[in-house]
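Annotators were shown the component list below and the corresponding predicted structure, then asked to write short factual statements about the assembly.
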Amino acid sequence: MPYKEDEAYLNQLIEQATDQALQHKRKHRSLRHRVMMITSAAAVVLLVVGIGLTFIDRDSKASVTTQQVESPIDEFLHSLSDEEVAQLPYYEIEEIPEY
Amino acid sequence: MLIQTDDNLLQQMLFNPSQREEGYKMLMRQYGRAIYWHIRRIVVGHEDAQDVFQETCIKVLSGINSYRGDGSLITWLYRVATNEALQHLRRQTHLFQRIDSLGDTLTQRLKAEATLHDDEAVTLFQQALLTLPTQQRIAFNLRYYEELSYEEIARITGKSVNTLKTNYHYATDKVKRYIQEHSR
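Structure shown to annotators:
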């Protein structure tokens, strides 16, 4: 062989390369763990926000529905007290004047 | 002195998560030299060999799970190292250039590292090897230097035994002719 590497050099190279490979794996594993943690946290946040938005959306739809069902007359009647309601003129069907 | 550890013991350690690190260190202490020289003969340059050896160590460690234990450990290590060395050479080629066309570059690298005290015959033999197509050169090296069987070389290179035998025959002829033509 024309190459000059001696035993001491090779021993050192092997030890060094082996250690670096082990460090590389540890670093890679910890990075992967961190990425997994961040991804999981982001997924949980998205899920919570999603559920929250669904509830808000449902509430706003319900209030819109209620607003649509309650007519202005009903709203007016609800705003009156019992005494005020009693004072309202009461028409018998027969009393409705003919035009 | 290097203490040889039984392959079965090494395999047991590698497959056991609590002993894997120690097993890996023992594996590299046992076969690291052979792997380094194999890489050095393929990529030729000293610094290239260092880089490829480092990459091989990382690939071996991360690929232990993919080792099924069906072939010998050294065969598997040679396969990983060969792939890494070929990938390294591929990165040195230009677009549409083949690895085989790197022969001149590798010869220049060999000459650059040679000193006045080098044995001329040995250097000439190395130069002759660099005229071979890369796959043929790898097979020749594994047979000539590592004295592996054709079956083992077939497992490393993925070629058939018959193809390897023919390649080795052609490679030997070509090397002999080169040396005859270039020796003074």
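Statements collected:
1. The interface with chain B takes residues 1-5, 10, 13-14, 17-18, 20-22, 24-25, 28 of chain A (CB under 8 Å).
2. Chain A has one domain: 7-87.
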